[in-house]
Specification:
Strand content: 5-15%
Radius of gyration: 18 Å
Strand order of the largest sheet: 1-2
Number of domains: 1
Largest sheet: 2 strands, antiparallel
Number of strands: 2
Structural class: mainly alpha
Shape: elongated
Order of helices and strands: HHEEHH
Number of helices: 4
Distance between the termini: 61 Å
Length: 79
């Protein structure tokens, strides 16, 4: 029997629980799932995509990156 801590760790490390991960560098949302994904993992990847769209993940990242470079440029000009 697994202890509750090990069960929690196993669930956290199980790729099918997460479904996939967003791939950065695209203008549109791309979720990459594990090559051996079965139904549960694909369902979770779709749910992750839905949450990412609802939270405007790509738009927020674009805004944050743009602000970073604007601030970086401003600090370089002030030196």
């Amino acid at each position: 029997m697994l202890s509750p801590v090990l069960k929690k760790l196993k669930k956290r490390m199980d790729y099918s629980e997460h479904g996939g991960a967003p791939i950065l560098g695209f203008r549109k949302l791309v979720i990459k799932a594990h090559g051996r994904s079965e139904a549960k993992a694909i369902m979770n990847a779709v749910l992750l995509a839905e949450k990412s769209i609802q939270s405007n993940l790509i738009g927020n990242m674009e805004h944050s990156i743009r602000d970073f470079y604007i601030n970086l440029f401003d600090s370089e000009v002030q030196k």
